[in-house]
Amino acid sequence: MAEVSAEARIEAPAEKVWDRLTDFSSYGQWNATHTSFPHGGPETLAVAATYQENMKLMGFPAEVTWTVAACDPARLLVTKGKGPMGVNLSMSYALTPDGDATTVRIDGEFTGAAVSLMAGKLKESATAALRESLRKLDGLVA
Questions:
Q1: One of this protein's Pfam families, by short name (predicted)?
Q2: For 4-41, what is each residue's pLDDT tens digit?
Q3: What angle do helix axes 119-141 and 14-21 make, rounded to 10 degrees?
Q4: Of all helices (H) and strands (E), which one includes residue 62?
Q5: Range of the domain at 126
Q6: Whole-prediction pTM
Q7: What element of type H or E holds 9?
Q8: Any idea what the CATH number is for the domain that residue 56 is in?
Q9: C-alpha torsion 42→47→53→55, nearest 10
């Protein structure tokens, strides 16, 4: 298993951050691992919604099927994913209002036999991608 996380304070209200975070048409502008949604993002962002995403991590392309596990607008989005080679993923985006700003924390988890072979490199690469994503997200909403 590989667990990753990153956190940043974004100088914008949680609702504004949430709107950008869940605007799947502009996902590639901030998400460093995203390459495309082959069939578009979820039609409705709600628990049990599913969608496919093409990603690139550690230089390798992967298609992941995501299912929304929790959704509390402007507060929390949790998705569970199934990727290639039996890899399971979990991503949690938590938004905490702080005056006129928002603390955004992203936690990710990768499990499966293939992960154990490259857990160290995966953790390093994914953590760097999360930090880059938060930096880009901040630039879009602040």
A1: Polyketide_cyc2
A2: 999 999 999 999 999 999 999 999 999 999 999 999 99
A3: 120
A4: strand 60-72
A5: 2-141
A6: 0.92
A7: strand 2-10
A8: 3.30.530.20
A9: 140
Q: Which of 136, 107, 126, 108 is nearest to 27 (CA)?
A: 136
34, with CB counted inside 10 A (0-12, 13-18, 19+), is: middle
Using the predicted structure, report yes or no on whether residue 116 has a pLDDT greater than 80: no
Q: How far apart are CA 48 and CA 19, in angstroms?
A: 20
Gap between the Cα atoms of 136 and 28, Å rounded: 10
- From residue 112, alpha-carbon distances to 4, 79, 88, 90, 123 in Å are 15, 17, 6, 12, 14
Q: How many CA atoms lie within 13 A of 130 on its CB side?
A: 21
Element (H, E) at 79: strand 76-82
Domain count, the chain: 1
